[in-house]
Each structure stands twice: as structure tokens, then as C-alpha cells.
Amino acid sequence: MKKASKFWLAILTVFTLMICASPAEAKTERYDRLDGVEVRVLLNGSSSARSYTITIGDGDYEIVDANDPDDVYAEISSGSVTFYADSSRSYRCEVNGEVYTSSSPFMAVPYSSDDYFIYNGTSYRGCFKAMHSGSYYYAINQINIELYLYGVVGRELGYGYNDEATMAQAVAARSYALSSYSSSNTYYDMTNTTSSQVYGGKSAETQKIIDAVDETCGMILEYQGEAVQTYYSSNMGGHTENIENVWVSDEVPIKGVPSPHDALAGNYSSYGASTYSWTVEYTPEELVSLANSYGDTDIGTYTGISYSTTLNGVTSVSGRAMTVTISGTRGSVTATKDSIRSLLNLKSTLITIADNSSGSSAAYIKGADGQAINFSDLNDVYAVGSSGGTMKVNGSNSSLYVIGGNGITSELDKTGGTGDTIVISGRGYGHGVGLSQFGAIAMGDDGYTWDEIIEHYFCSDNGIELVKAY
After folding, report:
1. Confidence of residue 29 (pLDDT cuts 50, 70, 90)
2. What separation in angstroms does the CA of 429 have from each of 51, 409, 437?
3. Which terminus of the chain has fewer Cβ atoms in its 10 Å neighbourhood, N or C?
4. Residue spans of beta strands (DSSP E) within 6-89
5. Where is the domain boundary, 139, 162, 185?
6. 391-408 b/e with 16+ CB inside 10 Å = b?
């Protein structure tokens, strides 16, 4: 028999009058009085699943009607709860052997912020509910946004980095989550994977992460009164990119900015170094295979590859490739913007391409249109002065050295080399929009504060503002 809830007030209220707890305070509060919205995170979705089971890890839970949380079926402080979907319009719930039925989904709701349940071996704060779409049965963690962030920041940024970068990541993740939240979303707002944000629940928390979230409680990026979907990735390779040059929309004008601290990623780990600078080699046959798979076609025998930093009259602000075309005897395949990563299986699109398949090559000079000119031998390269005089580059030395715009010095072999591969040299790891995580880490170690980091990457005279939403 149903009875009235003792504590459920308004779990879907967007904002409350409570002040966020400071990091020095214990974050044990009535769950229904926490500040901020609840977001719904997909933990599992299956067309074959007919039940999901959770175990109460700690605390007191009520089993309620998900559509009317004031209707309470049972209370539980230990044991397990199994949620069944007999059909899209018929649900069962078994609580320590007691069975309940309803035409609405059931939901397990905690009394306090510290209460948690266990699902598939992972601990989660907040609520659990299971919903049927007619073809899929979804397991969902419905959770206060601040508690959700406890399980996101470490999984996205990593653990053990400086406080300022960790707090910057918390703000970016909060803004992304709030922008993804909508009461019109039928089943869930986000997944727990890289398709949204990687979320590991309570099992992914550390005190350092909790403190970073609490210290920035309610801080988000906003554009024209709406939370900004704040994109971020591992390393931007020295410069971020305008959002419209990576995807399609510039509804929220995230702009490309210099990110020189990216070059310091190697100071943190070998993985960090691999996110800043990398090389990929393909044979002509491998490129044809990639093109055929991407374009679902047959371009024949390889004849060449070309790329440009300009598309439809618009040039990348960071030097990223905007188009790549692989050509063959029967046709060609072209990818644009961020789809280039999918075509060539690349870490980023901030690339140069050297085609050694038809002979020797030593270096390329890239023109304003992004096209490269091949120099097969650098022994007779001359520099031309402003007065018209010439001088042999690097004289009789065996190597030639060049310094890029980012200050990185590279060594080139004057004699060149022969081979049959296409060499793609790249910088960065990710789409290139928004916050560079290794850049933020290095900025924090260089004395920048979390808000300075956030404003550098997102607030470049584009109307995006850092605000306290609650």
C-alpha cells in the first residue's frame, strides 16, 4: 500500500534557495535540498534486458513512482531492488522479496547526498530508475548535477594535477552538463561515455575532485542567457579552432585562441607528449582502403592525396586541415572539417602530409592556400634577403633547422629520403574546440587561476561569460 513520502519535496526543481556548501564543510545534506538541477545519465540501454538490479550500498532509500515521487511504495536501507519491465506500460519492482506493480516506472530515491547504491559493481550517488521505450530498457542514474560532477572531473581530466586546472575542468563539465539538461528529454540527458562526458559515479571520486567541484559550485559559462556546451579535449596542438570550422553550427561562437602551453604536455607523461606531436604513416594501398571504407566506394589504384586549410573561402584559424582528398584511378573521396579524423584515423586535423610514394622528399613549404610544395633535396636551398642577396641555408651542415610559429625547433635531413609511404605529421589530440586539458594543466602550474584558464579558452570577446548560475 502506498504511503506519503517523509522527505520528498521537489526533486525536479531547477534551482533552490540553499547556498552551496564550502569545501571545508561536509557535503552531507538532504538530497532533495541540494542546489542545482538533476541530470539523467544513461548507465545502460538494451533491447534484450528485462530487469536491472541495484544493491543499497549505504543510507536510506525510498522506492517511489518515478512520475509522482510523493507516492512511496517501500523504504529500504539494505539489500537489493530489482526493476522489471513487463512491457512499455507495465512495470514491476521487487524490494527484498516484496513485489510491487505499476503502470509507471519505479525510482529509488536517497535521503541524503552521501547515500549510494551499487549497479554492475560501481557505486553511484543519487537516484536509480529504469524506463522502457518500447524497444529499449534503460538504466538511468538521476542525480543532482553537483554530485554528478564528482564522478566526471577525474575521469575526464585525470587525477593528481593542480587545483586550478581541476577547478577549470569542473566548470567546463558543469556547463556542458547543464547545457545538455532539458525537461523535454524523454529518457536521459547524457550518456556515461565519451559521447557525452565520461562518468564513473561515486567510484570515480577523490577528495581533491570533490573540493574542486564544491569550490566552483554553480559556476558555468553562459551565452545569451543559456548554458554553453563547453567542449574540451586532451591537447589542442598549440591553437584552438573556431567551432564552425570543426563542425557546422556557430550558434554559440566559441573562437580559436593560441594555446602555447600545450607544448608542455610532455613534461607530465609520455602520453602527454604523444598528445602534442605525433606521426602516422600509410602505404598507398592502406589509404585506398581507408577511402573506400569511408566513402563506401572503390576509387581504384592510388594516385595521390591533397589537403587544404581552406573550405568554401573560409580558412582555419589554427592551421587545421579543412579538406582532405584521396584520389585513385576510378575516383576520389573527400572528407571535410572534423570528419577528416574519421577518414584517416587521426588524433587531430592539425596536420601536414608528405607523400613519399612517388619518389624522394625532404621537406614541404606550405602556401597560403594550405597546399604543400615538395623539396626532394635540401642541399641547394637558399635564403633571399630583403636586398635581393642570397645565402646557402645552413651551409655545409648535414641538417637544416627550422623554427615554427610555436617556437618548436625541428631538424630536417638535407639529403631527403626515399620510400613508398605517405607520412602525416600532426599536433594535438581531439576536435580542437574549447578547453585544452593539457594546456589548462600547464597554465595552472604556470600560475594562472581556474577562472583565467576558463576565460582564456572561451571568453574571447564573443559574448560568452563566466557566471554563477546558482
Report:
1. confident
2. 39, 20, 10
3. N
4. 38-46, 51-58, 61-65, 68-76, 80-87
5. 162
6. eebbeeeeebeeeeeeee
Q: What is the pLDDT of residue 235?
A: 98
Q: Using one digit for the tens of pLDDT, what is the confidence trace for 244-285? A: 999 987 789 999 999 999 999 999 999 999 999 999 999 999
Matching residue, cell 532539458: 182
Domain annotation covers residue 208: no
Same domain for 158 and 9: yes
Domain-located, residue 309: yes
Q: Which residue has the cell 561536509?
A: 26
Q: Give the residue carrying C-alpha cell 542545482.
A: 36
Check: CB of residue 463 under 8 Å from CB of residue 223: yes
C-alpha cell at 71: 507516492
Is the C-alpha dihedral spanning 110, 470, 227, 198 positive or negative? negative
Q: Express each pLDDT in 294-323 by its tens digit.
A: 999 999 999 999 999 999 999 999 999 999
Domain count, the chain: 2
Residue 391's domain spans which residues? Answer: 275-427
Q: What's this model's pTM, rounded to 2 decimal places? A: 0.82
